[in-house]
């Protein structure tokens, strides 16, 4: 399965950059791809024009394969994003679909010759996405930064269940930041891993330095969930702003009344302008293992070396 994943995406290492609203720009995607992994330009948190610009930047900065993340529910009209992806179909090497029903979109990208990855959070969704034609699944556990699936399965429980439910490669996501996590994911039957939080705290990431340093300073218990009151689950770094949101959520808000607290602009302020007091910033529980802001190449190469060492050690048991 690992080999199949590497061949489908044309990459050296089974490591993928998860789609990241505001953070997943062309420069970061290119840095990830140049390190032998699979970078992805995220479409969330950017205008259509900026989305195109970031695709162009990735094209300029790497000759290696990279992809696009399309979180359907983040766009009032995802069709214009789909058209943009199709415009660059010869330059990109895969699309990951998240946050919505992937079924109508899968055939469109497949007909364009692009491998399609679908983010899932239960074994049932994994099976459905496979039936709908997905080539690769990303099984994302609730340790992950950002929006999580409502079932809140952990990566350790979800990944083997998803692997057992399908015949296609499954990538593990959520809480993975080092070689131990990569080795563990492979042991659970995953073909590779997807990283989010670890890549935020890299030199090439466009995240504000305060956000990067907050991830480095955070312990595993320093994240929490917001948006539960409206039936969503979103993992963020704890802080004063988040306490205010949670206090408001206790009053039983409607989605409309909660919106001013959770709108994208509040995310942008925190993550790109460093105004952590005025907005929210996503982080997975793996933040407790992130102790340095590193160049992307170091993150990827260290992860691969560590995983090899762990696997060699385990094979002696
Ligand atoms: C800053 C940030 C932004 C994210 N935005 C998106 C997004 O736009 N689309 C998406 O599918 N997932 C998004 N995610 C989830 C990641 O793609 C990835 O699956 C997750 O971060 C993996 O868990 P980890 O954070 O523990 O590494 C985001 C995660 C982070 C940390």
UniProtKB/TrEMBL annotation:
Gene3D superfamilies: Aldolase class I. One of its GO terms (molecular function) is oxidoreductase activity. Keywords: Flavoprotein, FMN, Oxidoreductase. It holds the Pfam family NMO. The keyword Oxidoreductase applies. Signal peptide: none annotated. Nitronate monooxygenase that uses molecular oxygen to catalyze the oxidative denitrification of alkyl nitronates. Acts on propionate 3-nitronate (P3N), the presumed physiological substrate. Probably functions in the detoxification of P3N, a metabolic poison produced by plants and fungi as a defense mechanism. This is Probable nitronate monooxygenase. The lineage of its organism: Bacteria, Bacillati, Bacillota, Bacilli, Bacillales.
């Amino acid at each position: 399965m690992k080999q199949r994943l590497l061949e489908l995406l044309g990459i050296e290492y089974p490591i993928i950059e998860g789609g990241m609203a505001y953070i997943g720009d062309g420069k970061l995607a290119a840095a990830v791809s140049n390190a032998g992994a699979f970078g992805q330009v995220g479409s969330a948190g950017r205008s259509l024009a900026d989305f195109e610009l970031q695709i162009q930047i990735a094209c300029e900065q790497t000759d290696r394969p990279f992809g696009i993340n399309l979180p359907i529910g983040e766009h009032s009209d995802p069709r214009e994003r789909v058209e943009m992806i199709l415009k660059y179909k010869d330059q990109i090497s895969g699309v990951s679909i998240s946050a919505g029903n992937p079924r109508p979109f899968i055939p469109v990208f497949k007909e364009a010759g692009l491998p399609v990855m679908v983010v899932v959070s239960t074994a049932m969704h994994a099976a459905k996405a496979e039936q709908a034609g997905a080539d690769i699944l990303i099984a994302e556990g609730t340790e992950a930064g950002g929006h999580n699936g409502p079932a809140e399965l952990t990566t350790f429980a979800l990944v083997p269940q998803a692997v057992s439910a399908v015949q296609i490669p499954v990538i593990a996501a959520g809480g993975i930041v080092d070689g131990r996590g990569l080795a563990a994911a492979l042991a659970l039957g995953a073909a590779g891993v997807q990283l989010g939080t670890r890549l935020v705290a890299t030199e090439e990431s466009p995240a504000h330095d305060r956000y990067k340093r907050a991830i480095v300073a955070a312990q595993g218990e320093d994240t929490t969930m917001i948006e539960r009151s409206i039936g969503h689950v979103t993992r963020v770094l704890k802080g004063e702003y988040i306490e205010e949101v949670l206090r408001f959520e206790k009053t039983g808000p409607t989605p409309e009344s909660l919106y001013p607290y959770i709108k994208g602009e509040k995310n942008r302020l925190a993550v790109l302008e460093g105004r952590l007091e005025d907005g929210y910033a996503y982080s997975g529980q793996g933040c407790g293992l992130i102790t340095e802001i590193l160049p992307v190449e170091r993150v990827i190469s260290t992860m691969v070396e560590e995983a090899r060492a762990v696997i060699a050690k385990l094979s002696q048991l």
